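Task: sequence design from structure.
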Protein backbone atom coordinates (compact mmCIF):
# COMPACT_ATOMS: atom_id res chain seq x y z
CA UNK A 1 0.00 0.00 0.00
CA UNK A 2 2.76 2.36 0.91
CA UNK A 3 5.42 3.76 -1.36
CA UNK A 4 7.10 2.80 -4.58
CA UNK A 5 9.95 5.13 -3.72
CA UNK A 6 10.93 3.09 -0.64
CA UNK A 7 14.67 2.77 -0.24
CA UNK A 8 15.92 -0.80 -0.25
CA UNK A 9 19.02 -0.47 1.85
CA UNK A 10 17.58 -0.86 5.32
CA UNK A 11 20.80 -1.36 7.28
CA UNK A 12 21.46 -4.03 9.86
CA UNK A 13 19.77 -3.95 13.25
CA UNK A 14 21.63 -4.61 16.49
CA UNK A 15 19.32 -5.83 19.27
CA UNK A 16 19.95 -6.31 22.95
CA UNK A 17 17.01 -8.60 23.59
CA UNK A 18 13.88 -10.27 22.27
CA UNK A 19 10.80 -10.16 24.37
CA UNK A 20 7.94 -12.56 24.11
CA UNK A 21 4.71 -11.49 25.79
CA UNK A 22 1.30 -12.98 26.40
CA UNK A 23 -0.95 -13.17 23.38
CA UNK A 24 -4.35 -11.55 23.46
CA UNK A 25 -7.42 -13.76 23.25
CA UNK A 26 -10.10 -11.34 22.17
CA UNK A 27 -12.32 -12.37 19.23
CA UNK A 28 -14.83 -10.66 17.05
CA UNK A 29 -16.10 -9.00 13.94
CA UNK A 30 -15.12 -5.79 12.10
CA UNK A 31 -18.03 -3.71 10.98
CA UNK A 32 -18.85 -0.40 9.40
CA UNK A 33 -21.94 1.54 10.38
CA UNK A 34 -24.37 4.21 9.35
CA UNK A 35 -23.49 6.72 12.05
CA UNK A 36 -20.44 7.95 13.92
CA UNK A 37 -21.72 6.74 17.28
CA UNK A 38 -23.26 3.36 17.97
CA UNK A 39 -24.20 1.78 21.28
CA UNK A 40 -24.53 -1.96 21.80
CA UNK A 41 -25.28 -3.87 24.99
CA UNK A 42 -22.57 -5.78 26.85
CA UNK A 43 -22.63 -7.97 29.91
CA UNK A 44 -21.23 -5.07 31.92
CA UNK A 45 -24.00 -2.76 30.75
CA UNK A 46 -21.54 -0.38 29.08
CA UNK A 47 -22.08 0.93 25.59
CA UNK A 48 -19.75 0.20 22.70
CA UNK A 49 -18.23 2.92 20.61
CA UNK A 50 -17.77 2.86 16.88
CA UNK A 51 -14.13 3.91 16.48
CA UNK A 52 -12.83 5.45 13.23
CA UNK A 53 -9.10 4.70 12.82
CA UNK A 54 -7.62 7.22 10.40
CA UNK A 55 -4.51 6.19 8.42
CA UNK A 56 -2.18 8.96 7.25
CA UNK A 57 1.36 8.71 5.89
CA UNK A 58 2.87 12.13 5.36
CA UNK A 59 2.08 15.73 6.34
CA UNK A 60 4.17 18.16 4.33
CA UNK A 61 4.97 19.65 0.96
CA UNK A 62 5.68 16.73 -1.39
CA UNK A 63 3.32 16.00 -4.27
CA UNK A 64 2.88 12.32 -3.44
CA UNK A 65 -0.68 11.07 -3.06
CA UNK A 66 0.41 9.90 0.40
CA UNK A 67 1.08 13.49 1.50
CA UNK A 68 -1.53 15.84 2.91
CA UNK A 69 -0.65 19.51 3.31
CA UNK A 70 -0.18 21.15 6.70
CA UNK A 71 -3.34 23.21 6.20
CA UNK A 72 -5.30 20.15 5.14
CA UNK A 73 -4.18 18.27 8.27
CA UNK A 74 -5.12 21.24 10.44
CA UNK A 75 -8.52 21.36 8.75
CA UNK A 76 -9.03 17.65 9.45
CA UNK A 77 -8.28 18.10 13.14
CA UNK A 78 -10.49 21.20 13.33
CA UNK A 79 -13.33 19.21 11.79
CA UNK A 80 -12.86 16.35 14.23
CA UNK A 81 -12.97 18.75 17.17
CA UNK A 82 -15.99 20.58 15.77
CA UNK A 83 -17.81 17.25 15.41
CA UNK A 84 -17.09 16.37 19.02
CA UNK A 85 -14.34 13.79 18.59
CA UNK A 86 -11.72 12.95 21.20
CA UNK A 87 -8.42 11.51 19.99
CA UNK A 88 -7.26 8.41 21.87
CA UNK A 89 -3.91 6.68 22.28
CA UNK A 90 -3.08 3.29 20.86
CA UNK A 91 -3.02 1.98 24.42
CA UNK A 92 -6.52 3.34 25.08
CA UNK A 93 -7.77 1.63 21.94
CA UNK A 94 -6.17 -1.71 22.74
CA UNK A 95 -7.51 -1.72 26.29
CA UNK A 96 -10.95 -1.01 24.84
CA UNK A 97 -10.96 -3.95 22.42
CA UNK A 98 -9.43 -6.31 25.00
CA UNK A 99 -11.60 -5.61 28.05
CA UNK A 100 -15.41 -5.52 28.06
CA UNK A 101 -15.35 -3.21 31.09
CA UNK A 102 -13.24 -0.49 29.44
CA UNK A 103 -15.05 2.36 27.70
CA UNK A 104 -13.91 5.27 25.56
CA UNK A 105 -15.09 8.87 25.20
CA UNK A 106 -18.43 9.29 23.48
CA UNK A 107 -16.87 9.96 20.06
CA UNK A 108 -13.34 8.50 19.95
CA UNK A 109 -10.94 8.62 17.01
CA UNK A 110 -7.57 6.91 16.61
CA UNK A 111 -5.21 8.89 14.34
CA UNK A 112 -2.42 6.74 12.88
CA UNK A 113 0.61 7.33 10.64
CA UNK A 114 2.55 4.69 8.71
CA UNK A 115 6.25 4.55 7.74
CA UNK A 116 7.90 6.99 10.15
CA UNK A 117 8.57 9.87 7.78
CA UNK A 118 10.54 12.87 9.07
CA UNK A 119 7.56 15.13 8.40
CA UNK A 120 5.58 13.15 10.99
CA UNK A 121 7.89 14.67 13.59
CA UNK A 122 8.37 18.06 11.95
CA UNK A 123 4.73 18.76 11.05
CA UNK A 124 2.16 16.21 12.23
CA UNK A 125 3.45 15.99 15.80
CA UNK A 126 3.41 19.77 16.56
CA UNK A 127 0.03 20.21 14.85
CA UNK A 128 -1.45 17.42 16.95
CA UNK A 129 -0.08 19.12 20.06
CA UNK A 130 -1.46 22.46 18.90
CA UNK A 131 -4.94 20.94 18.81
CA UNK A 132 -4.51 19.02 22.06
CA UNK A 133 -4.71 15.69 20.23
CA UNK A 134 -2.61 12.53 20.08
CA UNK A 135 -1.44 10.29 17.26
CA UNK A 136 -0.03 6.79 16.83
CA UNK A 137 3.09 6.35 14.67
CA UNK A 138 3.97 2.97 13.10
CA UNK A 139 7.71 3.05 12.45
CA UNK A 140 9.97 1.06 10.10
CA UNK A 141 12.86 0.36 12.46
CA UNK A 142 15.39 -0.44 9.72
CA UNK A 143 14.97 3.09 8.38
CA UNK A 144 15.33 5.02 11.64
CA UNK A 145 17.68 7.94 11.08
CA UNK A 146 17.84 7.53 7.30
CA UNK A 147 17.10 10.50 5.01
CA UNK A 148 13.49 11.68 5.32
CA UNK A 149 12.85 9.32 8.24
CA UNK A 150 12.48 9.97 11.96
CA UNK A 151 15.46 9.44 14.21
CA UNK A 152 15.44 7.35 17.38
CA UNK A 153 15.59 10.52 19.50
CA UNK A 154 12.60 11.99 17.69
CA UNK A 155 10.61 8.81 18.29
CA UNK A 156 11.47 9.01 21.98
CA UNK A 157 10.48 12.68 22.14
CA UNK A 158 7.10 12.02 20.55
CA UNK A 159 6.48 9.18 23.00
CA UNK A 160 7.43 11.41 25.94
CA UNK A 161 4.78 13.88 24.77
CA UNK A 162 1.99 11.32 24.76
CA UNK A 163 2.18 10.00 21.21
CA UNK A 164 1.93 6.22 20.69
CA UNK A 165 4.52 4.15 18.82
CA UNK A 166 3.90 0.89 16.99
CA UNK A 167 5.80 -1.44 14.67
CA UNK A 168 5.79 -1.30 10.87
CA UNK A 169 8.44 -4.07 10.72
CA UNK A 170 12.18 -3.77 10.04
CA UNK A 171 12.25 -3.48 6.26
CA UNK A 172 8.67 -2.83 5.10
CA UNK A 173 8.46 -6.05 3.12
CA UNK A 174 5.05 -7.64 2.51
CA UNK A 175 4.71 -10.11 5.39
CA UNK A 176 2.42 -12.55 3.58
CA UNK A 177 5.09 -13.02 0.88
CA UNK A 178 7.84 -13.97 3.35
CA UNK A 179 8.78 -17.32 4.80
CA UNK A 180 7.66 -17.98 8.37
CA UNK A 181 11.24 -17.45 9.56
CA UNK A 182 11.61 -14.11 7.72
CA UNK A 183 8.25 -12.85 8.94
CA UNK A 184 9.12 -13.83 12.50
CA UNK A 185 12.39 -11.89 12.31
CA UNK A 186 10.65 -8.81 10.90
CA UNK A 187 8.08 -8.84 13.69
CA UNK A 188 10.35 -9.81 16.56
CA UNK A 189 13.27 -7.53 15.73
CA UNK A 190 11.19 -4.42 15.10
CA UNK A 191 9.30 -4.97 18.35
CA UNK A 192 12.46 -5.48 20.37
CA UNK A 193 14.17 -2.46 18.80
CA UNK A 194 11.31 -0.14 19.70
CA UNK A 195 10.97 -1.55 23.20
CA UNK A 196 14.69 -1.10 23.82
CA UNK A 197 14.42 2.47 22.53
CA UNK A 198 11.33 3.44 24.51
CA UNK A 199 11.68 1.29 27.61
CA UNK A 200 8.02 0.35 27.20
CA UNK A 201 5.93 -2.40 25.65
CA UNK A 202 5.17 -2.18 21.94
CA UNK A 203 2.44 -4.64 21.01
CA UNK A 204 0.72 -3.32 17.88
CA UNK A 205 1.72 -3.81 14.25
CA UNK A 206 0.52 -2.05 11.10
CA UNK A 207 1.05 -4.52 8.26
CA UNK A 208 3.34 -3.07 5.56
CA UNK A 209 1.47 -2.71 2.27
CA UNK A 210 -1.52 -4.21 4.03
CA UNK A 211 -0.02 -7.66 3.53
CA UNK A 212 -0.82 -10.39 6.05
CA UNK A 213 -2.16 -13.94 6.24
CA UNK A 214 -3.41 -16.41 8.82
CA UNK A 215 0.20 -17.48 9.25
CA UNK A 216 1.25 -13.84 9.77
CA UNK A 217 -1.35 -13.48 12.52
CA UNK A 218 -0.20 -16.66 14.26
CA UNK A 219 3.43 -15.50 14.13
CA UNK A 220 2.47 -12.06 15.42
CA UNK A 221 0.70 -13.60 18.41
CA UNK A 222 3.67 -15.85 19.16
CA UNK A 223 5.98 -12.80 19.06
CA UNK A 224 3.90 -11.00 21.68
CA UNK A 225 1.78 -8.66 19.59
CA UNK A 226 -1.77 -7.96 20.71
CA UNK A 227 -3.13 -6.14 17.66
CA UNK A 228 -2.64 -5.82 13.91
CA UNK A 229 -3.90 -2.97 11.71
CA UNK A 230 -4.82 -3.58 8.07
CA UNK A 231 -5.63 -1.26 5.17
CA UNK A 232 -9.13 -2.69 4.87
CA UNK A 233 -11.58 0.17 4.90
CA UNK A 234 -14.00 0.32 7.81
CA UNK A 235 -14.31 1.14 11.49
CA UNK A 236 -13.71 -0.78 14.69
CA UNK A 237 -15.83 -1.78 17.67
CA UNK A 238 -14.94 -3.48 20.94
CA UNK A 239 -15.21 -6.93 19.40
CA UNK A 240 -13.37 -6.28 16.14
CA UNK A 241 -10.83 -9.05 15.37
CA UNK A 242 -7.64 -7.96 17.10
CA UNK A 243 -5.31 -8.80 14.19
CA UNK A 244 -7.54 -7.60 11.34
CA UNK A 245 -8.40 -4.10 12.47
CA UNK A 246 -9.82 -1.80 9.80
CA UNK A 247 -8.70 1.75 9.09
CA UNK A 248 -9.78 4.71 7.00
CA UNK A 249 -6.98 5.87 4.66
CA UNK A 250 -6.54 9.58 4.02
CA UNK A 251 -4.85 10.72 0.79
CA UNK A 252 -3.92 14.03 -0.81
CA UNK A 253 -6.67 13.77 -3.44
CA UNK A 254 -9.49 13.12 -0.95
CA UNK A 255 -12.27 15.54 -0.13
CA UNK A 256 -12.90 16.78 3.39
CA UNK A 257 -12.87 14.41 6.32
CA UNK A 258 -16.64 14.07 6.53
CA UNK A 259 -16.68 12.92 2.90
CA UNK A 260 -13.90 10.43 3.62
CA UNK A 261 -15.77 8.93 6.55
CA UNK A 262 -18.93 8.68 4.51
CA UNK A 263 -17.21 7.17 1.48
CA UNK A 264 -14.65 4.85 2.99
CA UNK A 265 -16.46 3.61 6.08
CA UNK A 266 -20.12 3.96 5.22
CA UNK A 267 -20.51 6.49 8.01
CA UNK A 268 -22.94 9.33 8.26
CA UNK A 269 -22.19 12.66 9.85
CA UNK A 270 -23.05 13.59 13.40
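Answer:
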Amino acid sequence: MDVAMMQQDWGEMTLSRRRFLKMCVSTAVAVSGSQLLMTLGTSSGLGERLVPVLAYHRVGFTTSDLTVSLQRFKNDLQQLKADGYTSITLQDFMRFIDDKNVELPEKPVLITFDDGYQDNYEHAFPILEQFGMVGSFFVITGMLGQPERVTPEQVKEMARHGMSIGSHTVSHRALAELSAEEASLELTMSKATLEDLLGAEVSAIAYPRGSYSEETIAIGKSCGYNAGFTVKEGTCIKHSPDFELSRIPVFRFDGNLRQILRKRAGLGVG
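The longest helix spans residues 180-198.
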